[in-house]
Amino acid sequence: MIWEELTCQLQSLASDNLLRRRRTLESACGPYAVIDGKPFLAFCSNDYLGLASHPALMEAVASSVRRWGTGSGGSHVVSGHMQPHEELEKALAAFVGAERALFYSTGYMANIGVVPTLVGRGDAVFADRLNHASLIDAVQLSRAEHRRYAHNDMAHLERLLSASTAKRKLILSDAVFSMDGDLAPLEKLAELAERYDAWLVIDDAHGFGVLGRNGRGSLDHAGLPFSPRLVYIGTLGKAAGVSGAFIAGSDTVIEWLMQRSRSYIFTTASSPVLASAICASLELIANGDDRRSHLQKLITRLQNGLSGSRWRLLPSFTAIQPVVIGENDAVLKVSEGLRDRGIWVPAIRPPTVPVGSARLRISLSAAHTEEQVDTLVQALKELA
User: Fold this and answer.
1) Catalytic residue among 81, 85, 206, 368
2) 325 and 263 in one domain?
3) Domain tally, the chain
4) Residue range 110-130: average pLDDT?
5) What are the DSSP calls for 67-96, one per residue?
6) Could you give the residue ranges of the DSSP H alpha helices within the chain?
7) Do residues 264 and 321 share a domain?
8) Which tens digits make up the pLDDT trace of 134-164?
9) At what angle do helices 83-96 and 55-68 cross, to 10 degrees?
10) Residue 74 pLDDT > 90
11) pLDDT reported for residue 328
12) Does a structural domain hold residue 10?
């Protein structure tokens, strides 16, 4: 029977300690998560600025739902593009310094929407080997040739570009890599895109709101201005504390995406309530230097606290602080040891990360305190 194969595959995942498990939270997103009635000090969330439960966003939602209701009723290109969506897109474009922006329902939809709209058969995409799964899927959907270069290896990338005879070329990279926490060499990527007449698509899921002046993102952090060939993707469900994503770029690129991007056209527009909440979040991000400063202090405190211990922190100055453990059973044991101490840090295993590099993915937030970080450090030292 065809379903018996699924049973065998699930059993294989279980024997390799690769089964994922969902946990139901009984609390709002914050430093503490209540599961089965028990509070855990949580270092799991991508709510880097601690905005997911901010009163200003709650008030924006309450006010918006009274004015606009809960649903959009249609796709953006039919009847679902409402005034809050329009105001949000203009605010996003102005915030990152682009000519125009387009609001998508999720980051995944933005990523799989942009690549197939810019390239197709006979073209080539040059992608960092550690790109997010959504970017990998985006290339496969485009049917373009998929050339992967070693992580952040610009010499390798240039060799691939120079040898390519593709009609159109597209360089594709995360800005901040979600499992390593390091930053792509954005200036060099832009230089290579210019030299080889390629599109440059940057997914800034983990940099938007955290890096750059006033949280404008990784491009601003790198001092990289927009050009006609640069396409920027920002995620709004992480540091912004809401959900959705946007693509920013030249007016021509955004118009083309609006006309041809399937994941934008063929889906119901997000609730106008979300758009209103994101507009409120942008104001908090723009005025959030104190939050970003506190977050950097926490990062330094964690790194100093684990310095000299057996745990190997990957080099990252971002809120993502990965601790490489090694094998699946070992990382699960450490994660369970933390849970026994009332601390929740997720164990990340293959295929999300390479075999043999299973890790704890510590996510810090401006909502955490120094004492909470010290509690995590002490627990890790005890487990070491």
Assistant:
1) 206
2) no
3) 2
4) 98
5) HH-S---SBIIIII--HHHHHHHHHHHHHH
6) 2-15, 55-68, 83-96, 107-118, 133-142, 154-163, 186-195, 218-221, 251-260, 262-265, 272-286, 289-306, 328-340, 370-383
7) no
8) 999 999 999 999 999 999 999 999 999 999 9
9) 140
10) yes
11) 87
12) no
Token representation of residue 258: 């609006």
Q: Is 263 a catalytic residue?
A: no
Give per-residue pLDDT as tens, 200-238. 999 999 999 999 999 999 999 999 999 999 999 999 999
Residue 3 lies in a domain: no
Cβ neighbours around 355 below 10 Å, total: 10
The amino acid present at 22, given as its one-letter code, is R
Predicted confidence at residue 327, as pLDDT, reads 87
Which residue type occupies 239? A
Tell me whether residue 238 is one of the annotated catalytic residues: yes
Given 54, 81, 169, 238, the catalytic residue: 238
pTM of the model: 0.94
Instruction: List C-alpha distances in Å: 193 to 30, 43, 78, 186, 231.
Output: 40, 37, 35, 10, 12
What single DSSP character describes residue 334?
A: H
Q: How close are the terminal C-alpha atoms of the chain, in Å?
A: 47
Domain harbouring 349, CATH code? 3.90.1150.10
pLDDT in tens, 226-279: 999 999 999 999 999 999 999 999 999 999 999 999 999 999 999 999 999 999
SS3 (DSSP) at 27: coil
Reported confidence tier of residue 311, pLDDT bands at 50, 70, 90: confident
Q: Does any domain span residue 88?
A: yes
CATH number for position 261: 3.40.640.10
- Are residues 186 and 335 part of one domain? no
Which segments of 45-199 does DSSP mark as H helices, in order?
55-68, 83-96, 107-118, 133-142, 154-163, 186-195
Say whether 178 is catalytic: yes
Name which of 131, 138, 136 is nearest 152 in CA terms: 131
Q: Which of 340, 334, 343 is nearest to 383 (CA)?
A: 334
Listed residues 233, 253, 286: the one ending a domain = 286
- Same-domain check for residues 137 and 202: yes
Domain that includes residue 322, residue range: 21-49+289-383
Instruction: Let me know whether 210 and 359 are in one domain.
Output: no
Q: Is the pLDDT of residue 309 over 90?
A: no
Q: CA 337 to CA 352: how far, in whole Å?
A: 22
Please report whether residue 364 resides in a domain.
yes
- Judge if 119 and 236 occupy the same domain: yes
Given 286, 310, 343, the domain boundary residue is 286
